Amino acid sequence: MLRLFANLVIVLACNFFLIVGNAGPSFAQECPDPAKVSNASAQQKQPSKRYDRALPSYRDKSARYNLALVGDSLIELWQPWIKDSFPTRPVMNLGVAGDTTQNALYRLDGLNLPDFHPADVVVLIGTNNLGAKTAPCAVAAGVVAVVSKVRALWPGAHIYALSIPPRGKRYAFYEDVRIPANQLVASSLAEMPGVTFVQMNDDMLRCGKPSDKECSNYKPDHLHFNEGAYKLITSFLAAAGLQL
Predict the structure, then answer these.
(1) SUPFAM superfamilies from the xrefs (predicted)?
(2) Are 68 and 94 in contact (CB under 8 A)?
(3) Which residues 6+ apart lie within 8 Å of 145 measured at CB?
(4) What is the spatial distance between Cα 200 and Cα 198, in angstroms, rounded to a whole number?
């Protein structure tokens, strides 16, 4: 497993330079070593109240679940519509609001779910890593590290890794980081068996091209989703092969 992870880091690094090689030398020089980003110590963060309440029950009844959702607030806030989205699947929602990829790695390390053997895992993480001083390869390396950790925890599961969605003013928050990060994740995960990268349709999520108009799929913060967005995401997952 360590060899597989090392190979994935090498692939991620190679793919990064293939994608940004024409962007100019200064951009490449500013990018941190993907291997160092992936191997950085996972960061501890307090879980949400919902997660704290749910985890003991998940542990006690873990054998009854066959689908897990892993990620940040975009996963955690899916909870009111989980049964509508996955009518035939008992779903374990392991999302925690505010988590970065580093926080998610820490959380996955402490799960302690020995009787949980999901058939499928959906991962949506990385939006909280976007920022002006963050290189796309750093964001991508973190997402790949989370998917690799999920693979190590549940080797029999098929993993569906969702792209980082649009957010922010005009739904165009740090697009210069988000878009290439998604491209890097897609190319890197193509080398990992049992993983499907799901590139969500950005324009469908944000109700068209970037603009100042409000989109009913998003809450007023232009970050978190309303029911319409979760319906779209469910359709993207179904089209990628996930049984609902």
Answers:
(1) SGNH hydrolase
(2) yes
(3) 37, 38, 101, 105
(4) 6
